[in-house]
User: Fold Dihydrofolate reductase family protein from Streptomyces aureus.
Amino acid sequence: MGAVVMHNVVSVDGFIADSKDQVGPLFDWYSNGDAEIGVNDKVSVSEVSAEYVRPMWAGIGAMVIGRHLFDITNGWEGSPPAGEHVVVVSHRLRPEGWHPEASYYFVDDVARAVAKARELAGDRTVAVAAGEVGGQALALGVVDEVAMDVVPVVFGSGKRYFGPVDAQHLLEDPHVVIQGDRVLHLRYKVRR
Amino acid sequence: MGAVVMHNVVSVDGFIADSKDQVGPLFDWYSNGDAEIGVNDKVSVSEVSAEYVRPMWAGIGAMVIGRHLFDITNGWEGSPPAGEHVVVVSHRLRPEGWHPEASYYFVDDVARAVAKARELAGDRTVAVAAGEVGGQALALGVVDEVAMDVVPVVFGSGKRYFGPVDAQHLLEDPHVVIQGDRVLHLRYKVRR
Assistant:
């Protein structure tokens, strides 16, 4: 089976957006270079970031996201930014008539959502959005790796990368430490 | 003048201790190697960490700390872990009879405390403890660099590296990215 990777861009103090969902300078590195990454033609990053991001995004089979992210993006209109399948953690059902062609599933429990995504992804990676859903998944012990694209900005407050986590979890030393332009790519395995 | 460097060991989610001041695994790297760093014989780190830490600690002339850290360490009994001078941000005065030989100063305002430390340090570095005091200093614009020794652990809650900071502050890309054993040394200049 593929790995379950919690992922997001994050400030040096652990925030993925401010309290109003604004990402401010966190996404600047997505457009500060000339290198394309293949899956999204609005993204054009530095070559060093592209070398890291390209295989990571290409390896994603399914994403797990929260209902909030689904709602604010309208589910990317049925075209996920990576992979072919999206599992939305939500107590509410799929909106009636919403992109019937899209491989989106609505599951009301984080553990079951991750299990469904693993089934859909097969050998490929399951990317779990950090924040509420990612934090719950980590606390449940179903996350294999934590990928943080750390942007050199202090946020001070906002929405936390680790969401509701309220206990200590050890990680391995990072097996990825790559310095891009306005982003430091880090990736840690969760210690078992 | 020397630089003013905010510094601490920190979890991947930005905490420097839990809510009861316990550092848990954050300090493991201080004793997981064979290399001494010269200023504190209880510290014995990996060689790669020692090469970074030795000149940094040797370059410190004065420290700025909060009253809370002073109280829980009893001011390191008058022997600061680095440098010769300590400025304590406190509304209360120096405890009567406490180590009269020690070069410790008690100042009730963060900006004045940093100014006093710069005067004492001369050309050497002023190290400002992260947390309440460091966060206030950053917000006041008197911090030149942010040094984070990032330990691969999620804390979930506790005392924040950036303390009371509640606004965005841009940093430069890190000019130090050094991977030790159970610690990633990062150092950023504050963008002006």
User: Anything to note?
Assistant: The mean pLDDT of chain A is 95. The longest strand of chain A covers residues 4-11. Chain A touches chain B through 35 residues (CB under 8 Å).
